[in-house]
UniProtKB/TrEMBL annotation, chains A, B:
Keyword Flavoprotein: yes
UniProt keyword annotations, A-Z: Flavoprotein, FMN, Monooxygenase, Oxidoreductase
Annotated ranges, domain Luciferase-like: 38-392
Superkingdom, taxonomy of origin: Bacteria
Protein name (database record): LLM class flavin-dependent oxidoreductase
Family statement: Belongs to the NtaA/SnaA/DszA monooxygenase family.
Pfam families: Bac_luciferase
Higher taxonomy: Bacteria, Bacillati, Actinomycetota, Actinomycetes, Kitasatosporales
Classification via NCBIfam families: FMN_nitrolo
Length: 457, 457
């Protein structure tokens, strides 16, 4: 790994639990291994999951989000748990595990989002992470009074502007500006609280924020775009990248590319963690794991899956065509869709494996394009180790096909193998998500500027 | 009370604990009865407070909010705890008490706010309340890219539009639309999930919401405006009104007016609770309570207080003028300020009591214009009983001058007297805020329309 700077003797892999109501396999909620669907709106279900992940010393729990209802909610457990409320209640039930909230730069205001993250970071004692998204679902626009979803490039322009604005807000209180000196009556030293006066191409924000600087300074920046715009954005801002790859080679290419981009911008590539998604079916034999996977696939709804395929590739097919080949010539490669990394990933599967429509649908049912593997605990651990040691991953976003059981079996049977091989911690060394990820706490830019300007004594 | 519909034999008063970092008296954080100021950013401090209020069977805890930093943070504990994150973590530490979050219709988007409240209501098992504000602080505008804060009438126009939009979103999933039938594979019955297609004068929202209907249907609507626009809004939408009055007579006038307005709109006035704010200094003798209040007042900062007076009345004074009369002729009665209910309240004090500037500043230091009383537990209970029985209150927003002690003494010494007199519950009868307040759970408007349209068998 030319771009890998961490000492290989102390390097450890990182694991997040990606929580999704009902589990990541779209039909998981129908299978008898899943709990009663009533539990999917019970906060205790998620608190228990996070406690289990904390017991396994996972780096973080990760919540997806999007400000619109998914069309496929008719057949899949695809409502949304608003991440700030949900993760704040999870924070109250845990002590060490990181809390990564997905939030959109397209459909929120910088001042409001900066407050939500600063508060989550305060109340969790420094465990907040932000999965920065620009929102892919075009139907979101009409929930916000817009006639059309802004195009990809426009969304990324706003995202960059947004990051600059919220970065300044999170820095606006220097550390120690909250003086609370009872004798003098000075509560906050307003000389160390700064208006930010951000004026970007799209956003104007005056500041300062209305809450003191949080334990981590700001949330850890996580990002998931793999398009050209997404990679450029990640190389500049992200501290962890969540990414989808079907093959080791694709993972390696992405890993090398993103690390090199960061290095070219003068960043330490070791401070940009690459975390592919992995959705494991685990059983005591490989054939049993495959059988379980097959059982899940057989519970999927072709009507739902064909709709998903249409959204991904622009191809409208009927149930009569399920056992034929995927019609390569009907795939729409142009426009917004063709720019997306998920589109490319699915196109690669089609070209590499030439699956039937049904086979392709089953591939996508697992984790929406993320890698699904079925095997014994040793096989799963071996796959993770291979990606980790062969330059495709610094760790993984674990996406259990069903919850909580799909996580429990991973924690009980795969994690101990990773530990035996010296790849994963047995207990936490730090208390913040930044510490779990091996990232330094940033200094406020205003404090840094003041220090730089101060005369040397 | 002609407009009082509740049966006087079963009528009970309602009590919220209004939580404010550092307590409601602006100098409380400096007094030795207050805990170390470090605790003001510790979630456990607020969880403990809410647990204490729950032990006392209070209806709810109430969090103020505003999307800007208060100028007076230099001298007063006036940073903001973002209410949704903070209350979600409080929800996780409690079981029955209501959770009332202040949120602005001017500086949020209906879709985002609807999600936050639906999620808080889900994760708390139906305990969410919304203190609806339009945001009074003009400096907020520049945190959201606006050059000027929208004027009062414009803010209320958006507030009405906003309430219509979020009301439709909260109704968009009918009860029972989450079917989760494992056998058929139907997860959500999309025939019972509705796009709302709201097109108001200012806001367009398509919907549906991306989460099922919450335990209370929607949060309890709380509102605090007492201006003409505010009263009209409260009469139409509010289920509880938080209001500031210095005298019984002013409280009675407001109470009668708001109940009559509700009745004229065809509402049951008993379903609109009037809850004045009350900030009590309590000690075993009246003189001791007054001495404590005086100690707090002597810790205030004239520089801060004069600034507050300037914001409230438009009068700029110096410390040399503290012991002279308030210059009535310099008070600016025109414009935005003159429309505000808080302005009128302070003007009334000036005209009724003719205080010195210092005396007026001390009056305002207690709870920003809310009523401050100092006395024995019997005296405080007697005051509450008088307002409650003489048509000025259905209950109170209790604003302890300092926290947690100022609440603890109220719970330990005033609440038992209210119980002995049959005025306040000893334990909860219900589990939701709606049940504590005696309010019915609304049916989704879409479900209601469907039922109305269904043929009679």
């Amino acid at each position: 790994m030319s771009a890998q700077s961490a000492d290989p003797r102390t390097r450890q892999l990182h694991l997040n639990l990606f929580v999704y109501p009902g589990g990541h396999h779209e039909a998981a909620w129908r299978h008898s291994v899943s709990p009663d669907p009533d539990r999917l709106l019970d906060i205790r279900f998620y608190q228990d999951l996070a406690r289990a992940a904390e017991l396994a010393a996972f780096d973080g729990v990760f919540f997806a989000d999007g400000p619109a209802l998914a069309d496929n909610v008719r057949y899949a457990s695809r409502f949304r748990l608003e991440p700030f409320t949900w993760l704040s209640a999870v924070a109250a039930a845990t002590e060490r595990i990181g809390l990564i909230a997905t939030a959109s730069t397209t459909y929120t205001e910088p001042y409001n989002l900066a407050r939500l993250f600063a508060s989550l970071d305060h109340l969790s004692g420094g465990r907040a992470g932000w999965n920065i998204v620009t929102t892919g679902a075009p139907q979101a626009a009409r929930n916000f009074g817009l006639d059309a979803h802004p195009v990809h490039a426009e969304r990324y322009e706003r995202a960059r502007d947004f990051l600059e604005a919220v970065g300044k807000l999170w820095d606006s209180w220097e550390d120690g500006a909250l003086v609370a000196d009872r004798r003098s009556g000075l509560f906050a030293d307003t000389d160390r609280i700064h208006t930010v006066d951000h004026e970007g191409p799209l956003l104007k924000v005056r500041g300062p924020l209305n809450i003191p600087r949080s334990p981590q300074g700001r949330p850890v920046y996580v990002q998931a775009g793999s398009s050209e715009d997404g990679r450029a954005f990640a190389a500049r801002y992200a501290e962890a990248v969540f990414t989808a790859h079907q093959t080791l080679r694709s993972g390696q290419e992405f890993y090398a590319d993103i690390k090199q981009r960061a290095a070219r911008l003068g960043r330490d590539p070791g401070k940009l963690l690459v975390l592919p998604g992995i959705s494991p079916f685990i059983a005591s034999t490989e054939s049993e794991a495959r059988r379980l996977h097959q059982e899940f696939n057989e519970l999927t709804q072709p009507e739902y899956s064909l709709e998903l395929l249409h959204r991904l590739l622009g191809v409208r097919l009927t149930q009569g065509e399920l056992d034929g080949p995927v019609p390569r010539e009907l795939i729409e490669t142009g426009g917004e869709r063709g720019n997306g990394s998920r589109f490319q990933l699915v196109l690669d599967i089609v070209e590499r494996e030439q699956p039937t429509v049904r086979e392709l649908l089953h591939r996508l049912a697992g984790a929406r394009g993320h890698r699904v593997i079925a095997g014994t605990p040793e096989q799963v651990a071996g796959q993770l180790q291979q990606w980790y040691e062969q330059g495709a991953a610094d760790g993984f976003n674990v996406m259990p096909p069903w919850l909580p059981g799909g996580f429990d079996v991973f924690a009980a049977q795969v994690v101990p193998i990773l530990r035996e091989r010296g790849l994963f911690r047995s207990e936490y060394e730090g208390g913040t998500l930044r510490e779990h990820y091996g990232l330094a706490r940033p200094l406020s830019r205003y404090e840094a500027a003041r220090s730089a300007a101060a005369p040397v004594a």
